[in-house]
Amino acid sequence: MSDCIFCKIVAGDIPAKKVFEDEDMIVFHDINPVAPVHLLAIPKKHIASLAEATPEDAPVIGKLLQVGGRMAIAQGCTDGFRTLVNTGRVGRQEVYHLHIHFVGGPDVLPPMLKR
Ligand code: 5GP
Ligand code: ZN
Q1: What Rg value do the Cα atoms of the chain yield, rounded?
Q2: Which of 13, 19, 40, 86 to mutate to test the pocket of ligand 1 (most atoms within 8 A of CB)?
Q3: What is the SS3 assignment for 37?
Q4: Could you read off the pLDDT of 31-62 as tens digits, one per residue?
Q5: Does CATH place domain 5-104 in 3.40.50.720?
């Protein structure tokens, strides 16, 4: 996907502060962090969102969660963190290349959603 910003990170065409990379996935720091630790875990394959993910994508999605969690801990989230996937219009997804947010830091996070 030539117009996808995260595919450009996969291709190395735009820089990212990577903390992990292998043949399937990358974990990097969010450019506009909402907390002291804010990582994004993405598959190298362009999957637009969780709504488009197929059964064949399930293994890499599991790997994003497992490796991303290890990286959050390695970045200092030793007492927990929050994992979030925004999907589509209702989920206020901004970048249409599947990504899992890992958010944390020294302090307890605010409640997930306001009532
Ligand atoms: P979404 O709302 O789609 O779940 O989140 C997209 C995230 O991608 C946002 O938190 C935004 O700060 C981050 N982001 C957008 N463009 C870039 C970029 O070029 N580099 C990095 N590292 N993060 C980006
Ligand atoms: Zn993409």
Answers
A1: 14
A2: 40
A3: strand
A4: 999 999 999 999 999 999 999 999 999 999 99
A5: no
